[in-house]
Give the backbone structure.
Amino acid sequence: MEQGGREEEALTGGGRNDYNPGIGGVQIDGKGIGMKKPEITVARRIERLPVYLFGQINALKTAKRHAGVDIIDLGMGNPNDPTPAPIVEKLREAALDPRNHRYSASIGIPNLRREAAKLYQRYWSVKLDPDKEVVTCIGSKEGFSHLCLALLGSGDTALAPAPAFPIHVHSIAMTGANVIRVPIAPDSLFLSKMADIAEHMTPKPKVAVLNYPHNPTTRTVELDFFREVVKIARRHNIMLIQDFAYGLTTFGNYKAPSILQVRGAKDLAVEFFTLSKGWNMAGWRIGFAVGNRQMLAALARVKGYYDYGIFQPIQIATIIAMRHCDEHVKQQAKIYERRRDVLCQQFARIGWNVRRPRATMFVWAPIPKALRKMGSMDLAMKLLEEANVAVSPGVGFGEEGEGYLRVALVENEQRLAQAVRQIGRASRNWTT
């Protein structure tokens, strides 16, 4: 057993299992009396969730690593660079203060919400009331899920992008609402589909989910796109939820717009922002939602029942992150840009035509024609088995993602180049 396993065993009282599964479905209690095994029935909302497609890949990855195989893991958008030192130091300092060991506020401490408002003013010239238009979240994923729970229920309908980051669809499904998938490309098709559904569907969609820069496809938009979306949403009274996780992970001269820059957007839109990417704070689980007051009040009400707030030292350190680490965010984006360039260059050398994205920490790679018949899931498994490289199959983001692989820029340039060389060597054997 590995060291971590021994430690866990010590903390949990050992690896011994006192529960006797018995024989033939009958359990034996401590007195030797036969007890029929109870039937466990999960909620119907859980049954609405599809099979987790990445589970098979994760299981194989774990098995190979336990066998000592060096896996180049480009599957998950999990930053491998360290959190800036000033943030870590402030966390250490704040954690030593016993006043910070108590419960916090579920919507976030006031100074953190004020700093979030300042960040939006600084980057996007968006003015926010930190008391009514900012709610702190345990990462944007938690906030997004709870906002869906606050806004949607059985009989409601929401629009979601296709393909989609899984939580953008599954959070809706778990509320009992219906999901309509809208293709995100080209932009004109998304807008026309959204308008057509809103015009002719009864009842009308209640919520539309946006995600730009987009995960997994890396698609980006300009502010005019959001202007058109807001126009449609206002006409048909549709609430908008925009996931802005990669708002500051942009390359070259491209600057991702905030939907709140559109006049009137705050009347019906909430935008989620996270420090996971630009500040390398993924494991810290810190983000916030900004925008419409009524939507945020509903989110705050749900969170008030579910959590007591983020550990206060993390919130205090996050203030330092937003106040003093702008230069780090710029440099981190340049790191991802250099990795993007190396990865795309290496893919071109092995005959893969991969477009260079303007944002995010991913490359959305079309599978070459000679390998496409294999399907993205089988190809991803084969790359892990024979090339020792983990990537995400496009179908894991919906059937619209079939024919693609999502490759995360979470290794250094040398490892990325090595990964593509291994992919090239392995894939040559499958086409001959």
User: Anything to note?
Assistant: The chain is about 45% helix and 15% strand. The two ends are 42 Å apart (CA to CA). The chain has three domains: 3-40, 54-81+328-428, 85-324.
